[in-house]
Write a structure and sequence with these properties.
Elements (H helix, E strand, L loop, with lengths): L1 H42 L4 H29 L9 H31 L5 H39 L20 H39 L4 H36 L7 H24 L1 H20 L1
């Protein structure tokens, strides 16, 4: 029927576009992970910034991987998700890595703010001294919290969808005969709380860094050390502000996706999918060009690939 062909074409277009975004993002984050792992093997240690970037790259790589599998199955082979534990496992894994991605991203912004900004507040000075020791615990806390949230999503789907609900619609099997919003309201609430909290962390980090840069420009005169400090401020601000802009867009479309989550043909959901899958790759690319070591390695790799292509 024309309606079924429209659904099929819509699904094919969605999968095609998301596939391009996902594999580009996976390549970018795999590059970050590989470079940092090689440096880890050579130096036998990683600094705090590299630890955060390593966990962030791993989280985003697997987030994109599980997200693509879920989109591909739901649009092309939806009945595969009717097999017990496949839907729960995909959603639980997706939630775990997405939660890790958001919280580790917030940790990275907070780390930049504490490490680079200059304030005379005693609590801020204490954080500045202790931040390197706190980073492993913050990362561990992010992983544990994400794991708990992922298990909660797994159990919720297992109970609400796979046991209590009957699926009768052949074209869209996830549209049940009874309303399921009440079963997923706690998950929606926690998801909104998670994104709002990490979003506020990014906002405060950007505002504090901007204020620190403004004070530095007005109170410090130019000399070699001050110039280096100013460059560090500007470099971090570019990364933070770019992340802030993208995070605003991502946050807005994620909220729209939650609102229209049961209307799969809605354009807000489609745009939300595109933004959410493009965000991990684009921001990771910005992080690469904000890090001298990663940027140098990437440019060297691209030049080697270019030379080999020219020789052929």
């Amino acid at each position: 029927s024309p309606q079924q062909s429209n659904v099929t074409s819509y699904g094919a277009i969605t999968v095609a576009i998301i596939t391009l975004e996902v594999f580009a993002g996976m390549w970018i984050n795999a590059f970050i992970v590989c470079v940092l792992c090689i440096a880890w093997v050579k130096k036998k240690t990683l600094n705090s910034n590299e630890k955060i970037l390593l966990l962030l790259g791993c989280s985003r790589f697997w987030y994109l991987c599980f997200s693509w599998i879920h989109v591909f199955l739901s649009e092309i082979y939806p009945f595969c998700l009717l097999v017990h534990s496949i839907l729960q496992t995909l959603q639980g894994s997706y939630t775990f890595f997405n939660c890790s991605n958001l919280w580790v991203s917030a940790c990275l912004c907070g780390f930049y703010c504490i490490k680079i900004a200059n304030f005379r507040n005693s609590f801020f000075i204490y954080l500045k001294v202790k931040i390197d020791r706190m980073v492993p615990w913050l990362l561990l806390g992010s992983v544990v919290f994400s794991l708990i949230f992922g298990i909660a999503v797994y159990n919720t789907i297992d109970k609400a969808v796979c046991r209590n609900l009957s699926f009768t619609c052949q074209a869209r099997f996830w549209k049940p005969t009874i309303r399921i919003e009440k079963h997923f309201f706690p998950i929606y609430f926690l998801t909104g709380f998670l994104n709002t909290t990490s979003f506020l962390a990014v906002i405060f980090s950007a505002v504090f860094l901007l204020f620190s840069l403004w004070r530095h420009k007005h109170k410090m005169q130019t000399n070699s050390m001050n110039t280096l400090s100013m460059e560090a401020h500007i470099r971090a601000m570019k990364s933070i502000l770019s992340f802030f802009i993208m995070y605003c867009i991502n946050f807005m479309f994620l909220i729209l996706s939650l609102i229209y989550s049961f209307n799969y043909q809605n354009y807000a959901v489609f745009l939300g999918y595109l933004i959410q899958h493009a965000f991990p790759g684009v921001h990771s690319l910005i992080l690469i060009f904000s890090n001298a070591k990663l940027e140098k390695t990437l440019l060297r790799l691209l030049s080697c690939v270019k030379c080999k292509l020219c020789l052929r």
